[in-house]
């Protein structure tokens, strides 16, 4: 027992010795009195808390009074001398700097030839432009900095026509810039600003074929078809071109009459005219048929696919970089067949439907080889009679190509039928109603489009047929059927569907040009509780009068011209070109 008490006494003696002046910080404590000298800091004894507890010029560092530096040389914050060759500035030890200090905490030192701007050391360029990714380059007098490169600007400009070939009008700067400095871009129009004016107008040149054919009834296409800058490539750095079929309305009438292929530069001349690059009236083309543009043979230059009069399809291939010469790439004189697939107005599409090799040409329910024009399959042969083709009124077919079921393979929707990429029939929707007679000699099975109208990721099918809009699910089951308003036109079959967000609600609507009205169909306008702003017609957001009884199947297009997030419809009836908000 006495031995145990003795051991405790020794331990207590050791604690007292640990708090002596020779080792003030080695023992535990709760208050200053527990320390033989010094102070209790965070449960341990130290000789000092601050430099005020030290004698003379000594300072308190880590609880010990030390002679680290003279009082006159101490830096304000921390009370110590700066190490090495560091200097004390504004109470902070910093590395020496013979230039200008910079940075958020003055941690940088700008060298000779640099200035401090926005907390960065950058080149002092005097009166010339500063440039480069890090703004450390100085441009020469007369140069500007554009896309992190010094360049000499061209002449002043307000539109592209003011600049020579090889340069682009940079409207924000008001000068022409070498096109090599400008990357791919997306035009986002200013919100609310849309006051279009005619910039230029095309007239057929007298020195090219069929100068009397100056009317257009089909939808032109825009594509880069010429190497305008001479860099050996035809791409987005070249001026876009416009391809279309022109005809003579006064001499030949409206539709399914001889037409001439035209390729016109998209650049307006100073006199308001347009340059015709190429014209061809051989073989005879259907003036009411559409065009498709795409690279069929993989050489980096697009081919043009057109519809011949009356049956058949043809592809043109460019043979000169400037686009002034084109040859026949191939011609199929049989498909689509007259009085079987079409009565004029066929619209071709280009798509790699099997995911292998070159793309294919799709016309209604007919698929052609993109390299040779030979028939791949005819839906009437693979699915049998009664399968959908894609006609409405007296024009067509107009079909759609998309992977609607997200299986990685494209489907073809033609009329009321859906085909697999190999021609196998997936389904056919059975019509039980109509809101207009069919004014053509072929059955009206409808014009098609594909979009997503419901909460799943798969696509839905839109059909416009005999005065009605149909929305079908991926499997062909009906989601909605909307009658198209009519006034006094005897027929009201209505044109190909144009799908876009017309009201800015984030959901798609369907535009179609009928005989008496241009109509926007909206699934949100169906049912007993339609959304605010719907028209008095079920399923119709709005409809406005037009003049299109003779056609009833005119196509339209869309673009957000004023940047407000709502698409505008672009449409021309028999008398007037219109853009609907």
Structure in a nutshell:
The chain is mainly β and 581 residues long.
Radius of gyration: 39 Å
Contiguous uncertain segments of 5+ residues: 1-23
Find the structural class using helix and strand composition: mainly beta
> What percent of residues adopt helix (DSSP H or I)?
under 10%
Count helical runs.
Answer: 3
The largest β sheet comes out as: 4 strands, antiparallel
Strand percentage lies at 25-35%
- Distance N to C terminus: 104 Å
- In round numbers, the mean pLDDT is 89
Count every beta strand, where a strand is a DSSP E run of 2 or more residues.
43
Describe the global form.
elongated
Strand order of the largest sheet: 17-18-19-20
Structure commentary:
The protein is built from three helices and 43 strands. The protein is mainly β and 581 residues long. Strands 17-18-19-20 form a four-stranded antiparallel β-sheet, with no helix packed on it. It has a four-stranded antiparallel β-sheet with strand order 21-22-23-24, with no helix packed on it. The chain has a four-stranded antiparallel β-sheet with strand order 25-26-27-28.
